[in-house]
Amino acid sequence: MSDNNNNAPLLRLEHIGKEFYGNRVLSDISFDIRAGEIIGLVGENGAGKSTLLNILFGMPVISSTGGHEGVMFIDGRKVNFTSPNQALAHGIGMVHQEFSLIPGFTATENILLNREVLNGSTMSYVFSDRVSTLDRQAMNERARAAINTLGVNISPYMTVSEMPVGYKQFIEIAREIDRKNTRLLFLDEPTAVLTETEAEILLIALNKLARSGIAIVFISHRLSEVKELCSRVIILRDGRLITDQKAEELTTRQIASLMVGRESERREVPQEIPEAPVEPDNVNYTLSPSPKKKKKKIKPALKVDHLWVDMPGETVRDVSFEVKKGEIFGIGGLAGHGKLGIPNGIMGLYPAGGSVRLSGRKLTLNKPRAALGRKMAFVSEDRRGVGLLLDEPLDWNITFTAMQTQGRFLIGIPYIFQIRNEHAMRKEAKKFIDQLEIRCTGPHQKAGELSGGNQQKVCLAKAFVLRPDVLLICEPTRGIDVGAKTLVLDTLRNYNKENGTTIIITSSELEELRSVCDRVAIVDEGRIAGILPASSPAEEFGMLMMGEKMRVALAATE
Amino acid sequence: MIGRFIQNAGWPRIIIALFLLGLFIAAPFVGVRVDTSLSNTLVRFGMNGVMVLAMIPMVQAGCGLNFGLPLGIIAGLLGATLSIEWNVEILARLAELGAQYKISWLNEAFLTSWREPIGFASAVVIAVPIAAVLGWFYGKLLNRVKGDEMMIATYVGFSSVSFMCIAWLLLPYKHPTMVWGYAGHGLRTTISVEGYWLHVLSDALALDINTENIHLYIPTGMLIFFAVMAFLVWVFMRTKTGTAMTAVGSNPDFARASGVNVDRMRTISVMLSTVLGAIGIIVYEQSFGFIQLYMGPFYMALPAVASILLGGASVNKAGILNVIVGTFLFQGILTMTPSVINSYLQTDMSEVIRLIVSNGMILYALTRKVRAGR
Amino acid sequence: MIRKLFDIIAGNAVPAVFIIISAFAIPLSGYSASYLIQELLTRIGRNSFLILSLLIPIMAGMGLNFGMVLGAMAGQIGLLFICDWGIVGIPGMLLACLIGTPIAIVLGIFCGAVMNRAKGREMVTSYILGFFINGVYQMTVLYLMGWIIPITNPALLLSRGYGVRNAVSLLGIRGILDNLIPAIITGTQGAGQFFSVQGGNAFVMIQLPFLEGSIRIPLATLIVIALFCVFIVWFRKTKLGQDMRAIGQNQAVADSAGIPVNRTRIIAIVISTVLACYGQIIYLQNMGTLNTYNSHDQAGMFSIAALLIGGASVSRASIANVFVGVILFHLMFIVAPMAGKNLIGEAQIGEYFRVFVSYGIIAIALVLHAWKRNREREAARRSLRGNKGGE
Description:
The complex is a heterotrimer.
Chain A: E1 11-20, E2 23-33, E3 38-43, H1 49-56, H2 60-63, E4 69-74, E5 77-79, H3 84-89, E6 92-95, H4 107-111, H5 122-126, H6 136-149, H7 165-178, E7 184-188, H8 196-211, E8 215-219, H9 223-229, E9 232-237, E10 240-246, H10 252-260, H11 263-266, E11 300-309, E12 316-324, E13 328-333, H12 341-346, E14 352-358, E15 361-362, H13 368-373, E16 376-379, H14 383-387, H15 394-406, E17 410-413, E18 417-420, H16 422-435, H17 452-465, E19 470-474, H18 482-499, E20 502-506, H19 510-516, E21 519-524, E22 527-533, H20 538-546, H21 550-557
Parallel strand pairs in A: 3-8, 3-9, 6-7, 7-8, 13-20, 13-21, 16-19, 19-20
Antiparallel strand pairs in A: 1-2, 1-4, 4-5, 9-10, 11-12, 11-14, 14-15, 17-18, 21-22
Chain B: H1 2-9, H2 11-26, H3 34-53, H4 55-60, H5 69-85, H6 87-100, H7 108-113, H8 115-144, H9 149-170, E1 190-192, E2 207-210, E3 215-218, H10 220-236, H11 240-250, H12 252-257, H13 262-288, E4 290-292, H14 301-310, H15 320-345, H16 350-367
Antiparallel strand pairs in B: 1-4, 2-3
Chain C: H1 2-11, H2 13-29, H3 33-52, H4 55-59, H5 68-85, H6 89-117, H7 122-144, E1 167-169, E2 182-186, E3 195-198, E4 201-207, E5 214-218, H8 219-237, H9 239-249, H10 251-256, H11 261-287, E6 289-291, H12 295-309, H13 319-344, H14 347-383
Parallel strand pairs in C: 2-4
Antiparallel strand pairs in C: 1-6, 2-5, 3-4
């Protein structure tokens, strides 16, 4: 911990970059970290933070996809980690957002997991250290010491499963501190699960740690905490380093707007829907006679009141909003705050409560069949898990939902004996393969063999076959390349225009929502932070997303 | 081309097919007749085919391999024994019906000449509803233990067989050919179906060439019965329900999001599998000639499971072709090894080979990397 | 509060039911107390070691090790060799263990490796593996022994000259461990002496006035079992034991903490297999005859059933479960046929009943385990909404 006289920084990154399958996610990142510094690392989801961490820790996902660009130095010496253990050996520790604790173990056992204090024994010479018994007393003392460093009072004998969430976070950090050589600690959203008082205690503890010489990289979306704790702030956006500045030089508002992009840059994306450039020859959605487009209709297509949804990792607490008929409505917000829970809950995929009205009539919740029966269609964010039958051919994927809920693509006598009409299925699949330009060998190809973008198109086709009145789409462009992105978004826009379908898009990419939608709601901690017209300045969305008390401030400015 | 074929067929299948082929080629050299071997293989194929077929619905619905097949077999045994117990009553009742409703063909002469097929049909008719009810409960149980179906199915099978051991002793069967002579109650361990419905399917339309040079017996009726059952299963898997079932097995989350009641599909698949198991054992018995009670059905699931896997099915995908290929290969090995290897080595290695091949096959399927679930 | 009470009752429901069954069946059977105690002591000595061998894989989260029959087979091969070579007594037993150990280790490594390939369905895999290896074992014993593997003793071989007979007498080591330290509990006979000498042998004598007749105690076997219990207690305190507990609870976390998950799982299975090998040797020295092709088959099923009857579950088992289980299971085993005969006049029913119970109890334990696990998953998801923040 005392390389201070040596002038080399603890960690130096030079021109770090990374491409995944031709998709650039990180470019030219360079910065230094010195001992005892606390650095705030902020950026939207997808800004490249996790890729950067993966590179730093030598995660296999990096080397298996062709390695990275640029070099890293520790104490001035060049390093290149090929496994997380090497990073650990160099004193770089990480506290993940998801707890990696063993629930049935005590605090001590977790803090010292795989670093237990052992009693020496003759057996250990014959076999290995693993047959030595544990020195429980010494272990408890060490655990207590680590917990004390944090300035909290948790019994080392307490079982993790009985702890409140906040305690678990402290145990995670204590585990990293106990590692004798830890000099640089990455904390990924450590305060997300803490109450305000717990968060305060944690911030104090981190300051204390930093004074003892440990450098800390604090990753958080809570900008006020970042400003309070950190000496420097590094902002990533679209894989580039936007700012590396002293924290006191920036206001939270500035940080927010730097994160989501400046006003001038936003204009690059065409906002005017009618002028969107689309190849005219393949925009022919004459599935149902297109109604005359009337965007000014007052009756809401969908009215949601006090909705809650138990979706793991995307819990929705209390959400109310209205969507007009024929509107494209966006739902944005940070990952884990519940934006995905809303459409999943409405479609009945996760236990939900509250009231959802579809053109004035109440919708039965918790029953996917009910939602599908009311002419709603859903494109899941979990394409491979929920959206597709990976082991089945494309025609199955595209027509299955329509077959089951609308009784189409069947021949025979309804309710008595019907078998599937493979000819009709194939025809329908072919139609969409042509329309959406799905790259495949034909309707017989298995869905699992397609690329991400083409799989997404299959999911869209599946929804379009249902001829929905309301279409709910989650993360339409996640994990697909730029070209496919544009095509998917254009398709949605056109489908809306042609058929007057109400579309609700949930996405982590704010720019995407602002370019396609009429209005965008931002979800924060399971509640709607605000609903703004898509043309509102990016900064305002940013502030809503950061969940600052700015909600009030913003309301005051309007 | 060949590489692709090998990939499609899978190494274990090719090795076993070549082994079987080798046995057929070697047969004449050790004095084993190919034609009788082939006949035996066909007979055993017909005997076991329906029970292997019973694997399809559950595998397709994602309930795994039906190690609980003995449950269906028990329903079949109940049907078989009851059809004998009530044989006279059933015939009398039919005659009564014929007289009552003036159905001219349902007369004494018809009933006498069709006595055996009627016996067989009554066994099936009795067994199917029992199997459906048992299957319904069994399906409900399996829905509550998703992820552990196979192990639990095994022990559900075992415990139901051992439970029935007690029941066979206590149930008030009276028919003299079935109960122990000295005690006057309690069913015998093996009951002959001779005089009831022995070979009722096997001998129907059977091709029996028995000349000096050739001994060929093809149980046409039984094979046709199997083909009909296979066709019915094939059609069912193409209905709306069958399609939904396949989707449930392929990806339950997808099916749920498409408005399919996953648990209901699984229950139906288990019921179907149990019913097929019940019919399967009756077909087996009419050819074998005996009803084997008590611990008889104990290990009957394993050959059926091994057969379908040998035919190229995996733990969550199976089709009719897998059944046909697998049953033929498996039964072929079972017929050929005792005759060929035994005449060569002068020992009976068939049991050991059966153990190694069938369990090796299941082991291979279990350890194969399946699509990573969510 | 009520929930807690419910949990306690539910947690011990299985042993409780068996105590009730026994309470009815014992008087029905009409067996005397000394007979029952004698039988129970014999069976505790015979079976406990086998059951104890199941504990370590459960600790490592691998469920009930149906693959323990592999160890039993290894033990039997050891016994076949010492029979052939005519080595008797304690040296014979030790030699059998010595031969069995490397075979058990190899089989254990194989079994562990296979189970690592089938994570999430270890039990059904190990169960089928048991059958598979059984095939290999039969191949070895029935065809290779006396042909490629030299077996010279004609008493062991089938009349055709190779392959081992179905039943092999283990007279040479019969009861050798059980009677190493002779001990007898008597009722009225003698007066106050702790040691007595009869026919040149020293006996440990314990007197209990209410007993009729005398009871022989397999003291040395019980000591070996006690030592084994001490081993398990010690093992739990080692680093290896701690690692296994960690893996048993959460493989992903254990892996990210740098614990070699797959290797540790293999070690757990190897230990279990080797111990099952010794367990089978102890079991067979008590029985005195080896059913070459069947003895191992039932070892697994009966051991697992006994452990579960003792109140263990697929994910949790203690030494206490072993002994409660072995007593209750075998009490039922001894009593059931006689009770069945006296009740319905059919001993067969009691016999089938105990088989049914053995399988039924395993089925129920597996169902409860899966059920509980799925319910906990549900509960974990539901609890999320109560917390603040996302994850």
